[in-house]
Structures are given as structure tokens and as C-alpha cells.
Amino acid sequence: MTDQDKLRQVRDRIDALDTDILRLVNERGRLAQDVARIKREAGEQADFYRPEREQQVLRRLQGLNQGPLSDETVTRLFREIMSACLALQQPLRIGFLGPEGTFTQAAAIKQFGHEVQLQPLASIDTVFKEVESGDMHYGVVPVENSTEGVVNHTLDCFLNSPLQIVGEVELRIQHHLVSREPSAKTIKRVYSHPQGLAQCRTWLDVNLPTAERVTVSSTAEAARLAASETSAAAIASEAAAEMYDLHLLVEGIEDNSGNTTRFLVIGRQSPPPTGDDKTSLVVSRIDQPGGLVRLLQPLSDHGINMTRLDARPSKQGVWEYAFFIDLLGHADDDRVRGALDAMREQASLFRVLGSYPRVAR
Known about the structure:
This protein is an alpha/beta fold. About 40% of the residues lie in helices and about 25% in strands.
């Protein structure tokens, strides 16, 4: 058998598999439509998006995966399949911190796939308001970066919002120097979001020490400005560069190669437990000596792992603070419920912001 014969056999097998995959994906879509029909006949009005179910499916598939495709690739492929099937049941409207081309948009696509209606919004406050009003089913907002810390504006919005956290997304952030100029040698001004400039500070100090650094509302806005000026560049994503037809002058200029941003998905109701969840709280301590120690002691007493603790002004008095806490487990778990009940007794303010599936990496 010649090499051409061998290739023909392999390609015939690939064609047959593609036919099977197409048939099975469409069968999955028909089953999704059946689910929607059964729910509607039963009078259910809830959203068809089930983040806890999606995470269970993705974790199961990762456990079954034997390669050669990576777990990340399998997750991305099945996320798109689930996104397409969900669109057959109920097209989702997702608000995100815009404009288009931002990392928040990339996080929204990573969480929901491409078969949703993505709406860029002008501010984090607006994302919250649009979800609260029902104009958007869900919203996606940044909450913390692995090198620059928390996004205070997002935390502050939770102080006055009834919304719940329904999911989280982690996105590896890679910054590029982009410009209409053909070379970085002519750059006199660099635009970016404050976080983008901060995350590339050392690179800028070494490579563009005399260039003016200008903060703007987003990395996508930075790319737009760079596209309209000479001798200007932006620190932005590859997607933003493509949107404004900019050259990638230098790729991967972030100071920390593990630079990652965490985003939250906000909605009206948190999902039920999956067995691998996270819970977020906002609390204030009773104003007396040792109040914070007593507030946190129930977590230790019940063997609960606290993964994050941040303080923000509570805006209810001078030098009064609210503490934002992330812990492992679901609020409906017995151990977590016991810890939260004990914490509530020690708190002047106590609210569960949501229990949601831990990110499937």
C-alpha cells in the first residue's frame, strides 16, 4: 500500500467521524429542545442556564479525557456545544464591562460561549443595574488580578445590590504593545487601562522609559485611541488590536508571566451545590476589641478554608469597614451553614453574596 493509499484511508475515517460528530451534536440539540419543552409544559419560568450542571458536565469530561486533546481544549469545545444547545432553549443576554475587545468580553465568551447575545456596558455599575432590571440575564465583571489585587469598584457595588454571584471565570491575561506605527522606536505615548499600565510597569520602564503613560477606561479604548494617532501605542489584547487593525509590535509584555484576572458572573439566584463550590460573603464586625477575631473564629472551628479577605469602607460611618470573604464550600453544606450561623451572631452586617461552582480549569 502506498503512502497516498494510507492517507486516503485516514481521511476517509476522519470524514466518517465528522459525519458521526455532526449527527450526535444535532441529537444533543434536539434533546436540549426537549428539555425546554418539558420545563415549559411543567410551568417553569426559571432561566434554562444551569451553571452547576455545566460545571459537573465539564469536570466529568475532563476526568474521562485521555488525550491527545488537552483538558483545556476539551472544555472549550464542549462549552461551545453547550452554548449552542442553550441558545435553542433560551437565548441569553449577557452584559459585560465594555467596550468590545476588552478582557471582560473574552471572559464572558469563555464562560458562555459565542452563542449568546453579548452587550458591552459603560461601567461596572451599569452591568449591575442592567442585570437587576432584568434587561440582562447575567453580567460579567472583573473582581481581582493576581498581581494588582482586587477591583474595588466591583466590591463596592455588592454593598448595595441584591444580586448574587453565580459563577467565576479565570482568564490568563497577556498584554501586547499595539500601534499603527511599524516600530516601537517611534512611540511617544502609551495608552491603557490603569491595570494594564501597572501590570507592564517594569517592561515600560526598561523599553519605553520616556514615553508618556496615559490611563483610559479600558484596553479596548486604548487601542481605539492608538489607532487614531501617530507615535502612539496601546497596551491591549490581540482581539482589540485586530478590531482596530493595529500592529502587534511586542507580544507578552506583562511583567508577570502568570498574570491572571478573576471575573465574577452575577445574576439573581445562586445555583445549588455541585460538591466543589465557593461561597462569598460581605460582613462587618461588631465594634469592640477582638471583634474581627471572633467574627472569623467559626471558620476555623468548622474546618472551613478561607481563600480571600479584603476590607472596604462600609460607607455607613467614618473608619467603618466591610470585609469581603471567599471560602471553600457551599452555603447549603452542613459545615458551612454552621460556620455562617455562628458568624452571623458576631456580625453587625452579614450577607451571603453567593455560592457557586469553583472554576473548572
